[in-house]
Amino acid sequence: MSLMAVSEALHRLLASASAEPLPETETLKLEAALGRVLARPVRSAYDVPPWDNSAMDGYALHTDDMEMATAQGLPVSQRITAGMAPEPLARGTCARIFTGAPVPAGANSVEMQENVHIDDQGLAHFAKALNPGQNIRPQGQDIRAGHILLEPGLRLKPQDLGIIASVGLDTVEVTRALRVAVLSTGDELVEPGQPLGPGQIFNSNRFTLIGCLQRLGHQVIDAGILADEPEATRTRLQTLAGRADVIITSGGVSVGEADYLGQTLREHGELDMWKLAIKPGKPFTLARFAGTPVLGLPGNPAAVLVTFLLLVRPYLLRRLGVHEVEPVKLEVPAGFEWPRAGNREEYLRARLEQGRVMLTGNQSSGVLSTASLANGLACIQAGKTLAEGDQVLFLSFAGLFD
């Protein structure tokens, strides 16, 4: 079987995710909606701002009175602060006004206080002429009533919540978080806190995956460790298929004699893809068992992290209806060389430091410590070499974990 390109695998994953029905919706208070996916358009019932307001602390006047304002000064007829309802401005006067305060009817310009001198008689002398509308934020400058502010499929950011609040809404309709089962496979695994026996290792993948899922806001079903036994594998998958929207596994999807998960998916499930041209993470699998999607990740810790970020994360986001799911890739000078071209697209644990990408150490798929030191991934295309200073693609963890 030839290896599938990462781009093709991602295309098929997103197509599979798009074919699944969206989860039902729920209405949340804004303070609980950060990171959730908008299910309905948000439309404003108000103009924002709802009235013309001053862009700075200063003095409001009508520009028809500009000659008087610069020649002999204008009396200050009222003082307007934010939250007040001002009186109409009498012609031949100006108003002391503060940032954000409503501009009174009859005024069409605001001068900053630094350019106005108040004399001993309390007259305001303006240093220069103003144009109509100067230093005024007009009604509806930001949002017009009836305008759709946000479209479905958006993962809500803090600024999105602020926009929704600015039009008076305190709730928002979002898609329900996915129920995602996390299953670790292998007789060699033992949970942290338990004694480590001969030939055993601690189960780190469980915590990496649960942490990634929690950052995305999903409901995690912790399915624990699955022993290397065929009947137990079928039974556990059957149980989880009835509870979860998606099952994510780590380990057991290769072709070894004890890789019962892979065998079970091939013999009793529906296998859609297996073996990708990616390093680390070649055995990545997409399958279905009892109608539920199964994303089978390799067992090596670094491979789990890389395949989750590059393949599982966009799949899960698309399942929620998110449109933009792929990370931003930056071209940055490499602070290292890569003299040997490989036959797979390779993702290296790296740091962006002073405008250059530096590797964080050992790139073995079993080494997770270099991922902890990294702040992103450097991507080396298949068949490519790299000299120090060449441009390399860099994917920041800042855009991959959110």
What report would you give on this structure?
The protein has 402 residues and is of the alpha+beta class. The chain has 4 domains: 6-23 and 177-319, 3-Layer(aba) Sandwich (Molybdenum Cofactor Biosythetic Enzyme, Chain A), CATH 3.40.980.10; 35-47 and 141-175, Molybdopterin biosynthesis moea protein, domain 2; 53-137, Molybdopterin biosynthesis moeA protein, domain 3 (Beta Complex), CATH 2.170.190; 330-400, Beta-clip, CATH 2.40.340.10. The chain is 22% helix and 29% strand. The chain is built from 9 helices and 26 strands. The strands form 7 sheets. Strands 7-4-6-5-9-8 form a 6-stranded mixed beta sheet. A 6-stranded mixed beta sheet has the order 16-13-17-21-20-18, sandwiched between helices. Strands 19, 22, 23, 24, 25 and 26 form a 6-stranded mixed beta sheet that branches. Strand 20 (285-289) and strand 21 form a beta hairpin. Helix 1 packs across helix 7 and helix 4 (205-216) packs parallel to helix 7 (301-319). 38% of the residues are buried. The model has no long low-confidence stretch (mean pLDDT 96).
